[in-house]
Design goal:
322 residues; alpha/beta; 39% helix; binds ligand PBG
């Protein structure tokens, strides 16, 4: 036999020569949930994750930095009485997210803080946009509020703004609003191909943010589509996005690959709550080796084309990689 591919796998040294992708803790972003209460409250469907109070947030970030994770993305669990149809709390400069950003940047100026732009945590309807009387999600009215939300986060010190709402034209509008206010250095990480996915279930439980009526299919993408992701990518790129994201990650590796081949921008992928929950649940039952499955899932996302990975496993993965 002339060709014996196994020769390139014969020892750890030769395998290291021929390995094509590698994970690094520097590519991981750690999503964190914050709430108004003092105490941390564990999230049942996301073993290991909690809604964090102010002290819990600092403790968790301290640990993350220690593990080698240098960036976080914040999601607020907003008190029910603060939720309104227009999501007004999203632009409150004294709100939970601005206060959390300030607390983090004061303690660790070098920490990279990413923030989520969308109305669902603040909306009494549980939608990412404003809901009209007939149930439609109003695009342009929503984009105006999102610009206010992005500015509020930038003023508090956010480094990267990540719109996850999927309204049309929001990347360009947010870029314009940021530039106009002097925030030229604040980046935009666009949720370019965000699918209407069942894998967000545990996250919606964590934030109590499930839609009160209907679903998100008029703004999030159909899981059947990939060409549409390329169209969204071209628009976000044109509107000034700095990085493009695919979400969820594991079930959409082909989308990540397609984007990789069509844009020169760096790509992010979000390994979402349901992907995390599946691995954690199987590992808890002893049905698979949790650490190996975690690392393999992340490496696959990297191999498919992600430069940056948002994952609830960030700390565990970073520890496993050192
Ligand atoms: C909403 C948002 C969602 C997630 C991030 N931002 C949920 C949704 O669209 O309903 C999901 C993240 C996860 O499941 O880990 N703007």
């Amino acid at each position: 036999m002339r060709q014996r591919p196994r020769r390139n796998r014969k020892s750890a040294v030769v395998r290291a020569w021929t390995t094509e992708s590698a994970l690094s803790s520097r590519r991981l972003v750690y999503p964190l949930f914050v709430h108004e209460a003092r105490e941390d409250v564990p999230i049942a469907a996301m073993p290991g994750a909690s809604r964090l109070g102010p002290e819990g947030l600092l403790r968790e970030v301290d640990g993350a930095l220690e593990d080698g994770v240098r960036s976080v993305v914040l999601f607020p669990a907003v008190a029910e009485e603060l939720k309104t149809p227009r999501g007004d709390e999203a632009t409150n400069e004294a709100g939970l997210v601005p206060r959390s950003i300030q607390a983090l940047k004061e303690r660790w100026p070098e920490l990279t803080v990413v923030t989520d732009v969308a109305l669902d945590p603040y909306s009494s309807d549980g939608h990412d946009g404003i809901v009209a009387e007939d149930g439609r999600i109003l695009n342009d009215e929503t984009v105006e509020v999102l610009c206010g939300q992005a500015l509020c986060q930038a003023r508090a010190g956010a480094d990267v703004i990540a719109p996850s709402d999927m309204m049309d034209g929001r990347v360009g509008a947010i870029r314009g609003a940021l530039d106009h206010a002097g925030f030229q250095e604040v980046s935009i990480l666009a949720y370019t191909a965000k699918y209407a996915s069942a894998f967000y279930g545990p996250f919606r439980e964590a934030l109590d943010s499930a839609p009160r009526g209907g679903d998100k299919k008029t703004y999030q993408m159909d899981p059947a589509n990939v060409r549409e992701a390329l169209r969204e990518a071209a628009l976000d790129e044109d509107e000034g996005a700095d990085l493009l994201m695919v979400k969820p990650a594991g079930p959409y590796l082909d989308v990540l690959r397609a984007l990789r081949e069509h844009t020169t921008l760096p790509l992010a992928a979000y390994q979402v709550s349901g992907e995390y929950a599946m691995i954690q649940a199987a590992a808890e039952r002893g049905w698979l080796d949790g650490e190996r499955a975690m690392l393999e899932s992340l490496l696959s996302i990297r191999r498919a084309g992600a430069d940056v990975i948002l994952t609830y496993f960030a700390r565990q993965a970073a520890r496993a990689l050192t």
